[in-house]
Amino acid sequence: MSEIVNLKDLRFGWKRTEPAVLDIPDFSVKRGESVFIHGPSGSGKSVLLSLIAGILQPQSGSVVVCGTRIDALSGSARDAFRADRIGFIFQRFNLIPYLTPFDNVLIPCELSGRRRAEAGVPLEKARDLLTRLDLPPALWDRRAAMLSVGEQQRVAAARALIGAPDLIIADEPTSALDSDRREGFLRLLLSLRASSSLIFVSHDLSLAGAFDRTAAIGEISRIREDRSCAA
Asked: What is the mean pLDDT of each run of 10 residues along the chain (231 residues)?
């Protein structure tokens, strides 16, 4: 099974004059694998996801995703790569508040020809995903800002899943939900991801059993101290 993500000798700090937030000698995720990453608040979990997605750049080392060294790409090339290859469920969902759920889900297909082609008929795929994620059709034409937290979560998941990205990244997407809703959402996400690899970050260890592999951030990074500037 080939690797979808590989990090080598990676170091990241907010400023070169400050201590590193992450120091990762070697970390990889296999194609099709689901990985659960946990750790305390401030330990660098969100920073790690942003480095893998090319949102942040390391101070040193390499970030290879889908065989491409994305840390060597320009900012615009990283944005295009992320649109093509990565579905990201942000902790606060990052929906466009004035757009409808339906329009939010279709954004990756507008940004990426690859995702648009993989979706087949994007309108039909968006309807299918929202239906399977239990978002009632009566809500599809409302502004995203009018939805509840749980409803916004489902829209964010559908947006990440549409167009079958190679990698899905989820940053604490269940933190605002009660335990029953967390488990239900996770079951749906795992059932809908198809062959996509999944990196899921959470502090809730009760979810870990659903994944192929579990890793503490302190096992991945040599920086074990809690840092208030990290996420």
From this structure: 92 81 96 94 91 96 97 96 96 93 96 97 96 93 93 94 97 80 86 93 90 95 59 54
Contact 164, 118 (CB under 8 A): yes
Backbone phi and psi for residue 18, each to the nearest 5 degrees, phi listed first: -105, 160
- Round to whole Å and give the CA distance between 202 and 217: 11
Q: Which two tokens stand for residue 179?
A: 């335990």
The DSSP line for 9-77 is EEEE-SSTTS--SEEEEEEEEETT-EEEEE--TTSSHHHHHHHHTTSS--SEEEEEETTEEGGGS-HHH
Task: State the helix-helix crossing angle for 122-132 and 179-192, rounded to 10 degrees.
Answer: 140
Instruction: Find where tokens 């065989």 sit.
Output: 67
Contact 93, 152 (CB under 8 A): yes
In the chain, % helix, strand, coil (3-state, to 5) comes to: 40, 20, 40
- pTM greater than 0.70 (yes/no): yes
Helices 122-132 and 101-111: crossing angle in degrees, nearest 10, is: 130
Residue 158: C-alpha distances to residues 16, 53, 137, 192 (Å): 38, 18, 14, 9
